[in-house]
Amino acid sequence: MALNKDKRMAEEQAEFKQQTKQILKRFGRKRSNLIPILQKVQGKLGYLPREAMLEIAEFLNMPDIDVYSVVTFYNQFRLNPPGKHSIRVCLGTACHMKGGYITLDAWKRRLEIEPSETTPDREFDLDTVACVGCCTMAPVTVVDNKPQGKVEPTKVDGLLLGFELERKKQKPGGQLPTDEA
Amino acid sequence: MKTVSLTIDGNKVTASEGDKVLWAALDNGIYIPNLCALRDAAEPAAACRLCFIEVEGCSKPVTACTEPVQEGMVVNTKGANALRLARTGFELLMASHPVDCAHCASNGVCELQIIARHLSIKLKSKRFRKLLRELPIDSSSPEFVYDPNKCVLCGRCVWICRERLGIGALGFAYRGFKRMVTTFGGEPIAESSCHGCDECVLACPTGALTLKDQHGGVSRAQRQKDPQPTAP
Ligand code: FES
Ligand code: FES
Known about the structure:
- Chain A has 181 residues and is an alpha+beta fold.
- Chain A contains 7 helices and 5 strands, in the order ααααβααββββα.
- Chain A has a 5-stranded mixed sheet with strand order 2-3-1-4-5, covered by helices on one side.
- Chain A is globular.
- Chain B has 2 domains: 3-91, Ubiquitin-like (UB roll) (Roll); 132-219, Alpha-Beta Plaits, CATH 3.30.70.
């Protein structure tokens, strides 16, 4: 089993490398291309895996830490694969006043991950945003691109239960889920 | 190269044209607090905001590391406005620095201690709320220990590793309060492209990077204390 997993990971890594190389073909070797490249690669892979960053650093002939530096600087870039469901907790001014941090803590506790991380089963990824424009509903959490209002910790549990039920419905007879990861 | 003469704190000094006031002062034994300045860097980072001076004819204090010397210039390193800026900058810096000098390998040689003494303020300031980061210490390198909690983000190690040595093992990552000096992917230094040359350690003004063989990973103060077990 572990061997299988290693093999799958190696295959995935080779695939990332291949796809990054493909994208790099369309760019010149200029440092100023770093951000457009990162955007394109993330657009294709969903995030910026290690292999992709290394490939890009080599292509632009810059220390790999410089690529990492830019990736960690901008909120837009992800170091973790996206989950099946995206959870975005608003910490804008209104949501902050209405206890956005308490909501965030509830998500963190339930999912057992920190912001900008993905659960190991790749079901959920968690992040924060700064105002999504529906402050009257504060505290807001955007779940799969749908803003949910008045998300207090109990509602966090409710939303998660909803996902749970949905998952159960999708595989009647307790069949094992097909591998999402 | 042409030399220019200027006055710093009433002393007549000369410096080469194009030089910055900071270096002219330091070369003539006049101390100006500084953390981020590097003599060989193409451009001053001017990030630490500690080197403020007052120049006659300038309405506001300026940073000594960016101010070029000029013929007949009159510099005051002790002006009240300049010192006020430097003190505030330093207090803000210390608000997220763990002050535990007695257990720090850099005790006695730390530039933060020197700066505090020069500005005659305490290392532990009451003015700002203390906010520490509690990041893990990296002792993976056989040569040195990296304690990111003690890092003041001056960038000296980053510059040396990349510009002078062309290695680029260290760099800045993240943003705002989370900003830190780290390796690619935040991996342990031993697994990075670090050669273990120790140049970064020599450049570090604080106790963030300390040599292992010199202190055995523990501070000098601790080693002195250890042989005598404390009475229960
Ligand atoms: S502050 Fe959260 S939606 Fe505006
Ligand atoms: S030495 Fe001038 S700003 Fe840091």
